[in-house]
UniProtKB/TrEMBL annotation:
Protein known as: N(6)-L-threonylcarbamoyladenine synthase
EC number: 2.3.1.234
Cofactor note: Binds 1 divalent metal cation per subunit.
PANTHER family in the cross-refs: TRNA N6-ADENOSINE THREONYLCARBAMOYLTRANSFERASE
Residues annotated as transmembrane: none
Cofactor: a divalent metal cation
Signal peptide: none
Biased composition (Low complexity): 15-40
Catalytic activity as recorded in UniProt: L-threonylcarbamoyladenylate + adenosine(37) in tRNA = N(6)-L-threonylcarbamoyladenosine(37) in tRNA + AMP + H(+)
Native source species: Trichoderma gamsii
Length: 383
């Protein structure tokens, strides 16, 4: 059978890549007449802040290509053993927004007059951080007299993934701190074939890291991944797949109980190490994700898998999905942290594609929502 292919290393951020898709990121805001067909170049500024990453990026589109001009990110990192609270994260975004926007413009080598639209994450995400960044985007829109484009966070991940990997019609495994979904395109929408029934996979990993005081720098999931590479013993943990859906709360509870034993008795008394526990948690969770992804591939007849979202950076997850895809004669398309982890350029890209179809978000309709479903978006650009 044909070997599964992981997408080749990504080009430097200044490299031009080909784009053929146009997206309309929300279905709730009104649309304006299409932009002039004589225009040959468009630039968008994208603002992302749905969780603890503040990202601002600028992208240029031509009718046949997309060029990343700048893609900056500033992360709010809380102390070990703690999570990031909405109010603290929102304060971080408000504090860093102006400086990051100025740096992004300077790195892009353009002026505000060159920007065609201001794109921002309208949801889903954490309410306070979303609102902080939306206020920044509205301010730039008013100061520069440029239209707003609200973007669905999940669609931003998918569109950026399709752009940088060249995946044509993949099943999408979207795994992040706040979302866990298996998605495939059908009839003008990104349909959710399976998802978490409770907490997201990234949230499960983050909360587990707090019990063992695993550092949040650069991210708890990354540090769990490094510890898991040294694990040797596979501990039994709940494996909960219900049809196309997964549940992660039970496995988290069990992992926390084992972590408590480890902290109380030590490795010798408990019979396992921190590394063993991280290894077991990863293996079990990722096996669940592989199962529902394979089922979706079989259902829609796709031979491609695209992994997006912050947890998609995990090399072990990529390896397990690639192994499954290889057995099916398919291929997996994966990315590194520049585009898997929340970033402004994915919002700029999806928003600019929408802008080019005539889509706008009026100021009075730019309110953010934490419950903005992936399948709420009408995918106008695809057949």
């Amino acid at each position: 059978m044909a070997a599964a292919a992981v997408a080749p290393p990504l080009p430097p951020p200044q490299t031009t890549t080909t784009t053929t898709s146009i997206t309309s990121p929300t279905s709730t805001s009104t649309s304006a007449p299409p932009t002039s067909s004589t225009k040959s170049s468009w630039i968008a500024l994208g603002c992302e802040g749905s969780a603890n990453k503040l990202g601002i990026g600028l992208i240029r589109h031509t009718p046949t290509s997309a060029t990343i001009l700048s893609n900056l990110r500033h992360t709010f990192i809380s102390p070990p053993g703690t999570g990031f609270l909405p109010k603290d994260t929102a304060l971080h975004h408000r504090t860093e927004f102006v400086a990051l926007a100025r740096r992004a413009i300077a790195e892009a080598g353009i002026s505000p007059a060159d920007v065609d639209c201001i794109c921002f994450t309208q949801g889903p995400g954490m309410g306070a951080p979303l609102t902080s960044v939306a206020i920044g985007a509205r301010t730039l829109s008013l100061l520069w007299d440029r239209p707003l484009v609200g973007v669905n966070h999940c669609v931003g991940h998918i569109e950026m993934g399709r752009e940088v990997t060249g995946a044509d019609n993949p099943v999408v495994l979207y795994v992040s701190g706040g979302n866990s979904q298996v998605i495939a395109y059908a009839e003008k929408r990104y349909r959710i074939f399976g998802e978490t029934l409770d907490i997201a996979v990234g949230n499960c990993l983050d909360r587990f890291a707090r019990v063992l005081n695993i550092s949040n720098d650069p991210a708890p999931g990354y540090n769990i991944e490094q510890l898991a590479k040294k694990g040797k013993q596979l501990l039994e943990l709940p494996y909960i797949v219900k049809g196309m859906d997964c549940s992660f709360s039970g496995i988290l509870t069990s992992a926390e109980a084992l972590a408590a034993q480890l902290l109380e008795r030590g490795p010798d008394g408990a019979g396992f190490t921190v590394e063993d526990l991280c290894f077991s948690l990863q293996e079990t969770i990722f096996a669940m994700l592989v199962e529902i992804t394979e089922r979706a591939m079989a259902h829609v007849g796709s031979s491609q898998v695209l992994i997006v979202g912050g947890v998609g950076c995990n090399e072990r997850l990529q390896e397990m999905i690639a192994s499954m895809a290889q057995e099916r004669g398919g291929s997996v398309f994966a990315m590194d942290e520049r585009f898997c982890i929340d970033n402004g350029i994915m919002i700029a890209h999806a928003g600019l594609l929408a802008y080019r179809t005539g889509f706008r978000t009026p100021l009075d309709e730019s309110v953010c929502t934490q419950r903005f479903r992936t399948d709420d978006v009408y995918v106008e650009w695809r057949d």
